[in-house]
Please model this.
Amino acid sequence: MSIDIAALAARVRDGTVRARDLAEEALARAEAARSLNALVTLDADGARGAADAIDAAPARAGALAGIPLVHKDLFSTRGLRTTASSRMLADYVPPFDATVVERLAAAGAVTIGKASLDEFAMGSSNETADTGPVRNPWDPTCVPGGSSGGSAALVAAGVVPVATGTDTGGSVRQPAAFCGITGLKPTYGRVSRFGMIAFASSLDQAGVLARSAADCAHALAAIAGHDPRDPTSHPCPVDDYVAALGDGVAGRRIGVVREWFGDGVDPAVAAQVRVALERLEAAGAKLIDVALPTLDHAIPAYYVIAPAEASSNLARYDGVRYGHRAADPADLADLYTRTRAEGFGAEVKRRILLGTFVLSSGYYDAYYRQAQRVRRLIADDFARAFADVDLLAGPTAPTVAFRIGEKTSDPLAMYAADVNTVAVNLAGLPAISVPAGFVDGLPVGLQLAAPAFAEGRLLAAAAALEQRSDWHRARPEGFR
Model:
């Protein structure tokens, strides 16, 4: 599919393209891409049924009529298994749809299946899924990034043009960078979290992954907006993201964040990102050096707050109400202990233990309260920067995709993969990763961050870069 999803949907609505044909093509590509291990569940019958319903009355279909997509398997899908890539929920079939799923279906999108993720979205490489690691289409010996690695890999491989993801500390943007596609994390509260399995409730945000800024804009337009079922959903009006694509960057001040080019960032990645920034400068943007000194504290603050919230959220998995249940428990304590020991993987257990520790008596003030204070300082740093610039920029990830297994024995090295992304979540701001070239044959991502609810500004800058480069059009060998 070389045309954007809006143009393709228009052809479905006028009858020149059948939604059933698009669904069959996507299902065939999914079969051809099985080696990536990116799909948890393929819903061929459901996809065909949804496509046939659109073809029965195409003129009444929505803005995304017939567009095939996959949902990260963290979104509840009525009647379709939702596992969070965990043994704990291996057989869970929700009785309702998440708001994101509901709104995309209302827009006419056709779900072909559910994408793998790091278990309960806890990871930076998509290696912690109970179904095994997902492979990067650009190099199957490498990770696709995490935790939305399955979604990113399927878009990069051309199985679908758009996929949903979630971003708690970079889980849309980092896999987008590793897989050479565009990934947008909206402002916290811009997209409903209703029906999205919780990891860290004050950080989680639904997002989209696609091949272009335009496709991201159309997908975001379908899912953005207030939802009374989510108390964190914001009531502010939704901007016209599609119209914003033509705004360009002329006169925009882009702050080049010194800390995002700091220690640990591969010099080749940094150099390639600066090439992309020069393209934006040639399009009329002004580049300004910016320092945000509190960003050096983002990783430790994040890895106190996120595990603390995960510890609380995952307490519900106790073998009593739903999910995995240990066989033949001796008593209630045995039921709880064995259910959680059997149902959760190693990384999830690590974060539950860490979160429980920082919330425990005698440690709450020393760790959790302090981390929340640092979070406030980081948000203030961003606010000061945005008083002088319109956007902030730097590499999305410090390196290109690394080898499968390279960092699994070193959790701190794995956590460092999120060094440039977690601060945006702590501040609740929107950010996007845009293709910015290649290093050693692997994709590089440029991250742009904006003030709250300025997603249109991000999409305009991404579109401006696309007009001056072909990086977003590149396809991995074997998936063209």
The first strand starts at residue 39 and ends at 42.
